[in-house]
């Protein structure tokens, strides 16, 4: 077995070497392999969350262009979905990327905690496992809160065109002023969605 291959005999790559990815190596690449994998995971989460943010902002802009049109259908722009998508890409990419990054960092910490939990399965330290479960619970709640606030912030971004922090603050205070109405609306919406899924499944 071997971990490197000398290909310096080729005329096109004099002095080059092929390094194979494995743990425990002595090169700078192998010493930082775990950090590189964490970077890849963070980038993957960031791209996924950015795609979801772009979708939410696009749909919010589409619904807003219909809702705020005084004369329907005269004031509704042609191709509202494409117009909202173009507007989100042109003007709100930074806001969407920033919100997606915040959520991705919280998700990355939660994944690291789950990895640590797997490594500590054979350890009988009750205190460390208790603290680990507390941290997992806190970051799970934090992720849910950030995801909920991001969704409402993207709606405010699509409607008013402000930056992410301003939109998140305005969305938070708007929800706090209508906390009972928001809770009832969420429950009614969840029930209607469940009823629709049940009817579709029963009809099939």
UniProtKB/TrEMBL annotation:
Family: Belongs to the CTL (choline transporter-like) family.
Domain of life: Eukaryota
GO CC field: plasma membrane
Function: Choline transporter.
Name this polypeptide is given: Choline transporter-like protein
GO molecular function, one term: antiporter activity
Topology term for the membrane: Multi-pass membrane protein
InterPro entries cross-referenced by the UniProt entry: Choline_transptr-like
Residues that span the membrane, as ranges: 41-69, 89-113
Keywords assigned: Antiport, Cell membrane, Glycoprotein, Membrane, Transmembrane, Transmembrane helix, Transport
Main location: membrane
Source organism of this protein record: Notothenia coriiceps (black rockcod)
UniProt subcellular location: Cell membrane
Keyword hit for Transferase: no
Reaction equations catalysed: choline(out) + n H(+)(in) = choline(in) + n H(+)(out)
Key word Transport present: yes
């Amino acid at each position: 077995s071997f971990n490197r291959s000398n290909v310096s005999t080729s005329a096109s790559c004099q002095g080059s070497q092929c390094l194979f990815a494995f743990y425990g190596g002595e090169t700078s690449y192998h010493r930082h392999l775990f950090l590189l994998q964490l970077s890849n995971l963070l980038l993957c989460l960031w791209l996924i969350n950015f795609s979801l943010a772009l979708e939410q902002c696009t749909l919010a802009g589409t619904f807003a262009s219909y809702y705020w049109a005084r004369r329907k259908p005269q004031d509704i722009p042609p191709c509202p979905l494409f117009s909202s998508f173009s507007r989100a890409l042109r003007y709100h990419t930074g806001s969407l990327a920033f919100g997606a990054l915040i959520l991705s960092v919280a998700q990355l910490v939660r994944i690291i905690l789950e990895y640590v939990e797997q490594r500590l399965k054979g350890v009988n330290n009750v205190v460390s496992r208790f603290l680990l479960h507390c941290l997992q619970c806190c970051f799970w709640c934090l992720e849910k809160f950030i995801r909920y606030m991001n969704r409402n912030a993207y709606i405010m971004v699509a409607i008013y065109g402000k930056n992410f922090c301003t939109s998140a603050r305005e969305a938070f205070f708007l929800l706090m002023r209508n906390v009972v109405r928001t809770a009832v609306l969420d429950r009614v919406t969840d029930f209607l969605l469940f009823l629709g899924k049940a009817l579709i499944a029963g009809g099939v």
